[in-house]
Design a protein that fits this description.
DNA-binding; 153 residues; 5 helices; Arc Repressor Mutant, subunit A; elongated; AsnC-type_HTH_dom; alpha+beta
């Protein structure tokens, strides 16, 4: 769905602070509060805005380690894929999982307390999912850029 100039300004404001009062969003968009409220409701109804959630600091919650785990399955049967995807859904330390192209089948984003905890997650959980053949871990040393806001150009 194409966004007009006002929709883009509204979404940009909400990406900065989703709790921003409608009056403040209206001020930033040069519209009054009523049309801004209607536009926000339409953006939500149309699925452009899919929800609101706090952004948590993983380190303050004790998760010092950020890692990516590359996973290959031994077969690509429907049962194998379903079992794998359900196990990933059930693992609270997996914060994202993507089916990917290339040498590996999945790219799994994992948070852990430390290297020992990552080892436990990898060896006792991910590697033991039926149908998993290969697992390779990449530990993040430093995050150069991390954005959750979408470009609206």
């Amino acid at each position: 769905m194409p966004l007009d100039e006002f929709d883009r300004k509204i979404v940009q404001s909400l990406q900065i602070d989703a709790r921003m009062p409608v009056a403040q969003v209206a001020e930033r968009t040069a519209l009054s509060a009523t049309p801004v409220s209607r536009r926000i409701k339409r953006l939500e109804d149309d699925g452009v805005i899919v929800g609101y959630q706090p952004i948590l600091d993983a380190r303050k919650l004790g998760f010092e380690l950020d890692a990516y785990v590359l996973i290959n399955l031994d077969a690509h049967s429907d049962d194998n894929i379903s079992r794998f995807e359900q196990a990933i859904q059930d693992n609270s330390y997996v914060i994202a999982c993507h089916a990917v192209t290339g040498d590996m089948d999945y790219l799994v984003h994992v948070i852990a307390r430390d290297v020992e905890h990552l080892s436990q997650i990898t060896l006792k959980s991910l590697l033991r999912i039926p149908g998993v053949r290969d697992v390779k871990s990449i530990i993040v040393l430093e995050t150069i850029k991390e954005m959750r806001a979408m470009p609206l150009d």
